[in-house]
């Protein structure tokens, strides 16, 4: 197999973390809230963050390629260490999972949903998350688990 160029800890599209709707899907901005209770990244007002303002993804739903997996509990956008910690609720008996930032396919800020390019089973089969085990060895196991799925298939000889 050829080595993977996939870096599981780097955001594939850093603009997905930016506020505003220029990079969001769908590209329609929500209507202004007439009640004044709107406080999201698109909130009206002079102090409202504009496009390009970093958005905190905590509380966003996470959608695997085949269904919902949970809610983001914490995030990190550190260089070469980006990840999401997702609370799976009753899906995996209240466990949390660590998803490297590279698994994020897109972010829909309007719907507050992060889409990842993994199935629910692939996420469930990942090395178990242990908040006390944030050491390099654990990160390498998780990174290797997700990076292996990006390895190019062996070339076939077509004669």
Secondary structure elements and pairings:
Layout: E1 61-64, E2 67-76, E3 83-87, E4 96-100, E5 104-108, E6 113-116, H1 120-124, H2 136-147
Parallel strand pairs: 1-6
Antiparallel strand pairs: 1-2, 2-3, 3-4, 5-6
Q: Could you list some keywords that capture this structure?
A:
159 residues, alpha+beta, 6-stranded mixed sheet
Describe the overall structure:
- The protein is α+β, with helices and mostly antiparallel strands and 159 residues long.
- It has 2 helices and 6 strands, in the order E-E-E-E-E-E-H-H.
- Strands 4-3-2-1-6-5 form a 6-stranded mixed β-sheet.
- A hairpin with a 6-residue loop joins strand 2 and strand 3.
- The longest helix is centred in the C-terminal third of the chain and has 12 residues.
- About 18% of the residues have low confidence.
Brief synopsis:
With 159 residues, the chain is an alpha+beta fold. The chain has helices spanning 120-124, 136-147, and strands spanning 61-64, 67-76, 83-87, 96-100, 104-108, 113-116. The protein is built from 2 helices and 6 strands, in the order ββββββαα.
Give the proportion of residues in helices: 10-25%
Alpha carbon gap, first and last residue: 20 Å
Provide the structure class. Answer: alpha+beta
* H-E order: EEEEEEHH
Proportion of β residues?
15-25%
- Could you tell me the radius of gyration in angstroms? 18 Å
Number of strands: 6
What integer is the average pLDDT? 76
Instruction: Summarize the main sheet.
Output: 6 strands, mixed
Specify the number of helices. Answer: 2
Q: What topology, given as strand order, has the largest sheet?
A: 4-3-2-1-6-5
Low-confidence stretches: 20-48
- Overall, the morphology is globular
